[in-house]
Amino acid sequence: MLKLGCKKTTLNEIIAQSGVSNGGLYHYFKSKDEIFGVIMKQRMDEINERFYREADLSLVGPTSIIVNELFGNHDNCKIFRSIFLYLVSQPENPRTQKIISELHDYWLELGSSWISLGQKDGLIDPSLEPKQTASYIVSYYFGLLINSAYVADESLFKPEAIIPFVTRFLRV
């Protein structure tokens, strides 16, 4: 997928890469967009799992996990960003609209739970409403993901630049 990009990746290539049978794939999915949605959700699940497994009692540690998993330079991050950009570039497509909407809702759910945990641990301002705050942060991350595809200055999207901004916003 990294070589061809999402638009040029075919279902046959996905089948060949995954080892799943043609019938098995078509039994569960109607399109590659649905497969991409599942890949995105699995990636968010991995980030969530890592967050709870490795988060320490500081604000920087958990924020670093999330930001590094979204904006890092390894293949999983690149695939995530590529799929995200592919899906959001099709607002007129009802299928991709639904996928992005579901991912957005899921991201809000995760973000709200992370913020609530940080408030419980005394790391995040208790006056912040978790879902509303998660919505602001998700919008910020969505914007960064889109900008990262078009802005030549990569230093703007390095985790080291994003983490302090987010932690200042949340801090008690």
UniProtKB/TrEMBL annotation:
Ranges of residues in domain HTH tetR-type: 1-47
Record Gene3D superfamilies: Homeodomain-like (1.10.10.60), Tetracycline Repressor, domain 2 (1.10.357.10)
Keyword DNA-binding among UniProt keywords: yes
Keyword set, alphabetical order: DNA-binding
Coiled-coil parts of chain: none
Chain residues forming the annotated DNA-binding region: 10-29
InterPro entries: Homeodomain-like_sf (IPR009057), HTH-type_Tx_Regulator (IPR050624), HTH_TetR (IPR001647), Tet_transcr_reg_TetR-rel_C_sf (IPR036271)
Species in which this protein is naturally found: Fontibacillus panacisegetis
Gene Ontology MF: a single term: DNA binding
Keyword DNA-binding: yes
Name under which the protein is recorded: DNA-binding transcriptional regulator, AcrR family
PANTHER family tied to this protein: ACREF/ENVCD OPERON REPRESSOR-RELATED, ACREF_ENVCD OPERON REPRESSOR-RELATED
